[in-house]
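Blinded run. Sample ID left blank on purpose so nobody reads anything into the name before looking at the predicted structure. Input follows.
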Amino acid sequence: MDILGQRLRAERERLGLSQTAFWGIGGGQKRAQINYEAGERQPDAAYLAAIAAAGADVLYILTGQRQGEPVSPVSPVQLDPDTRTAIEMAGDELHRQRKTVSGKRLLELVDGARRYIRQARELPGTGTHARNTEKSST
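Blinded prediction complete.
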């Protein structure tokens, strides 16, 4: 693995994303993310722009230096579970559809997935609704 591949992997892990979600966001082919992280291929500008929109620090990936704040200063610890799941769902869906989207569209997809997660919790027998029902019946 070359240094660029190591940094790319480190950024993906910092964001708490799987390889599948990351290359879905980046719009690459299935094998592309593995090849990037292994140092067998170099990502292009479109891929780097797409992952930057998802919060990757591209300056760090390219140079190894973090100057100022990353594009989106997040870490797995700071991401709430709904947001992390929403990003994974959006990345997986983009991969499934083999689509590349703008940063704005990616944020819309993540927001939609987050709403879906919260609504699912409110369904009878799941999540918050189930806990509230249990409390009120005691």
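Unblinding after everyone has recorded impressions. The longest helix spans residues 103-121.
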